[in-house]
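The instructor's notes for this session suggest beginning with a concrete chain rather than abstract definitions. Hand out the sequence below and ask the class to guess, before any prediction is shown, which regions might be ordered.
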Amino acid sequence: MIGKINDNLFSKIILPNKGAMHPDVVVGPKMGVDGAVIKIGEYYMVIAEDPIFPGPTMSPEDFGWITVHIGASDVAVMGVSPAYMSYSLLLPPETEESYIERLVRSIDLYARELGIAIVGGHTGYYGAVNIPTIGGITVWGTGKNFITPGGAQIGDSIIITKGAAIEAAALLASELGERIQKSGIDRKLVKRASQRLKEISVVKDALLATEIGGVHAMHDATEGGVCRGLWEIAKASRVGMRIERKEVPLPMDIKEICGYFNLNPYEVISEGTLLLTCPPDRAELLLNGFKKADIEAALIGKVLPVEEGSCWVESSGKQTALSPPEVDRFWDVFFNALYLKDDSRSNAEKILCSELSKAVDSLKKTLKADLIPEIGSNIAYALPDARKLEEIAAIPGRLLRFKGKVVSVGEPEMGCSKYMAGVLLGIRKHFPDVRCIVNLYSNEKIRSICRKLNYRIASMPVPVDFRQTDADFYRDLDRTLSVLDSVPQVIDIPDRINLERLILVPGETLDELVKVVLRISSELKK
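After discussion, reveal the predicted structure:
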């Protein structure tokens, strides 16, 4: 499963474990509710939390935009202006400072535009993190009233803004635009879909609807899309619905993108789409307000008594059940975006990655998981004449420990491990025949096994005060290797503050490296 947990798991594990009961909590954890509501004096505080991660090639500026707007949308959709935020920025150890600065500046810019003060958070480098990630953005604000998805009333009109599959189409077009165009889809349509990245927000829509007034229920169509969003309003409000499918806006660019990937546009993530219910006599006022604000909107259905159920009315007049999709299939496409792109590798690079993949499979079958450090292991494998990062293959998500087994995240790619490639290039300055290296966990037992096996061990010096920058590490590695006449089978990395103790195993061939590693593993199992 990828994405939000399902209803059963939520009800079984999350709902029973909500901490202490507090009388000021007006709205707590509920499936399909965008945020919590806490009574503070005469006001209600709405607070929401979201994780945010970028697309594989998303710029830090766009990442900053969606971070602020997705977080802020969950507060705005409950009828309250977002006023404060904090966020936790988790970074891979190799993240460049320039990227961090661009991302943080963009978050600041877009928060300012929405009048949101950034009041706290956390930023740090972590080995378990593979891409820059907002581990959590918390946004909150206060108001004298609030709106939830659970306020729909029988007879209400149902309104949608923008249309279906806004987020899915925008992200797919942004990440895979070239591939989509090569299929024959008009370049202008692909460009229009990618431009919808800045439509992944309901802040403007929701605050305008709140200002106009008369809204009974409001919700944004995130995971599971329009279909799940409508279903969640019906479920929370204990009502039924009749939705005219032909009235749901489906712009041609979105229709083409979803069609290319065989995605149902009504059942895929659509942050940026606002769903609301209101009395019929307020519908026209809201629609006119959206039109003046240049926000596309449409009347798509009506709220019914719960016993009448919820249904789609197809163009033919046939009624079909309105129920949430079991999974949002967008994630299957999105998380494989890099692999769906055209493979531009040379034949030599394809062979290199294939050989590395076989070596990784061999290790996964028999390697003792205790040899994998908490930060994960990686194997770097170089082309014969490699002199730069792009000429070295590695595992993008590393080798990890999972339930006592060794698992790999992703298939080998060129140029995806800055740290291990840097170490390998450093070793090749002294021993150019070395083409591969792996990092493993180390303790006294593992080092004792290496000595028992009579491996050639090179020990790096203990850094001053156990503190070591990347530059210090490469300098010490260079000095350690410069006095050796032959390639060590094991390089012992000393204790360092806040870092696990590791060993490096270099090899001239993958077979040689795997053999050395598996002998250590075999002894460790005894």
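Then share the key points. The CA atoms of residues 439 and 504 lie 5 Å apart. The first helix runs from residue 7 to 14.
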